[in-house]
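User: what does the whole thing look like in 3D?
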Amino acid sequence: MVRANDEVQALLQEYADLIAITGGDAFKARAYEKAARAVGGYHRDVSTLDAQQLREIPNVGKSIADKITEYLASGHVSAVEERREAIPAGVRELITIPGLGPRKALVLYEELGVSSVDQLLDALHQERLRDLKGFGEKTEENILHGIALMQKAGDRILLDSAMDTAEQLVSELSRVTGCAGCCYAGSLRRMRETIGDIDVLVAAERSAPFMEALASLPYTAEILAHGAKKTSLRTTKGLQIDVRVLPPDSWGAGLQYFTGSKAHNIRTREIAVRHKLKLSEYGLFDAGSGEKIASETEEDVYARLGLPWIPPTLREDRGEIAAGLRGDLPDLIEERDIMGDLHTHTDLTDGLAPLEDMVAAAAERGYAYYAVTDHAPDLAMQRMTKEKILAQRERVRALDRAHHGMRLLHGTELNIGPEGTVDWPDDFLAGFDLCVASVHSHFTLGRQAQTRRLVRACENPHIAVIGHPTTRQLGRRPPIDADFDAVFAACARTGTALEINAHPNRLDLCDEDILRAKRYGVKFAVDSDAHAVIHLPYLRYGIGTAQRGWLTKDDVINTWPLGRLRRFLHGRGHGRTAGEG
Ligand code: DGT
Ligand code: CA
Ligand code: CA
Ligand code: ZN
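Assistant: Here's the predicted 3D structure for the full assembly of 581 residues, as structure tokens:
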């Protein structure tokens, strides 16, 4: 479901930025930012809450609750509108550039009169930023990178946001009379990390009822193209959706064609030609007689090409056709194989929910085990101490087996410093069931230093998992520059698993890195990095990414039974190899 919470989160965040950019009270800006995050992570749909219930959301007081109520009732908030009017839209756009916060954006506007990304690029090329207070050559460089990153992301959107919209649309179209089948295709079905547009297919004899249904959806802003077989529309959020209606007897061929990728389709068509066949979105035909040979299901189409059904996440022309012809496709990991999550937070650090709520929600998901891994002391704003984390350990032990026998692991997420050291001493680390270690700062160290830092973390016998290994954030932060081949080799040598962080902003490692790391014999952990109850289901995006990296159940340590997982966690550094047991 597309949640009102996301809209309210965006609005409150924008208000925080506007306060900051108009030189307002920093404390107030921070309060709105915290409230934005809390609303985004809240487990209940804000549009169903009354004023009293809104104030039960952490960090939401009366004045913020009033603004939410105003927005839900009228679609806008007058205080936000007022601030918007004070600042040109182009300046507001500047804030969205990675590496350029509200404070710097305001300086650029006031000192240089910069009020658009293009004007900013001009100013950068004329080297006019470096003389401003708080700027320098390094800042110029970072802003240039930020703009490049933003332009590269273009109009593509994140996987979860496309998925929410697509699933809602599929369920609505499925209820239309005459619907014999409906599903999403394209890059979304292949679980690419970002989505250009959403492709939805309907199987039905008549297309008119579906095309009419689309025009009347509440989130349709504009119909871009309207035909008998295809309608393209733009949603109120600016997302493009292509809906195609296929005759039920060509469903399989249409689904195969519109799932893509284009590169995969070119390969399948080549095979068809070799068999003296012709493959299109309507079916597989005899090239000579034109007789239809297969079209109803994808399985039929692939089978008549001499191929097994190929999972959509593999359809990228990365060797899946050859593997299929050899009968050698990987037996891909599935979400149901996951026995537990190994990287999650609570409100003891920057999470939004208490331990008890996170654990109860994990048990609901049917996990056999679950690790709590709050941040260690280096992330200063959270003021972690040994006393606090040991007190948490008591609570974790008390909750162990409390829900359907689910086992709890008490862990921590360490911060990897610039030298590769972490923020608790070895003897203290030995007391944890699991240590994840991640980079959260010093993103611009040189390649050699960055590599050494990660390799040292792998060599620490207490560290079992490297969290979000490249630290990239889609459209916002590039991956750190390191020799990842050396890191992958170190992971394999030391039996350190690499995380596939399932947060849709991260998806880190990405599919291509996973393929490379797997060749070194590395093991992986697919984790949500949940900071709220509603983040636990993000795991599906990590699974999609793992599939795109051709991973099987055996490659992923959190599909293993607890005994085998514990041997992996504790056998490290004692001459055991990854995956033993
Ligand atoms: P996107 O939307 O950029 O995230 O990526 P896709 O893969 O969803 O691409 P899209 O929406 O342009 O087209 C959906 C699928 O339709 C695509 O994956 C394969 C198929 N398709 C579209 N155009 C062509 C084409 O020119 N040739 C072939 N073979 N297939 C095409
Ligand atoms: Ca698409
Ligand atoms: Ca499309
Ligand atoms: Zn984390």
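In plain terms: The mean pLDDT is 93. The chain has four domains: 4-153, 157-246, 262-326, 335-573.
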